[in-house]
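Reopening this one. Same input as before:
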Amino acid sequence: MKLSVIRSCIQGLLMNSLIIKLGALDYRSISFEVETIDTLIFQGNAVVNYTEYKIPYTRIIEHKHFEVFGDAVYQNPKTIISKEYSTEWRVGLEPYYPVNDEKWVAICAIQKAGSILAKLSVWWTIGRL
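Same output, byte for byte:
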């Protein structure tokens, strides 16, 4: 008896592999603005998220809190921060976040994607979905 096994490796965006069947999805990307600031501590934490509509960035990363701990934080009179901005995704940018809208829900419905992937007897996803 001869067994037939379909193996598929889906690399990168999971849904890019399903675009022919389901259509393209919308994504958001991010960009960063890096600043060196003349202060010991800017925000006191490595990452602070900002969700207020009036604030244009989504988070600030203060890098020294990833590298230095305790009293050592106070030995450098400056700090480096990165402000993260959400941006429209376009070809050439990293697609970080899927847009969770009606189109996403319709295209990404588990039963649709699942029915296609269920036809593959063995499959793996690699990297960001």
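So the earlier flakiness isn't reproducible anymore. For the record, Confidence is low (pLDDT under 50) at residues 125-129.
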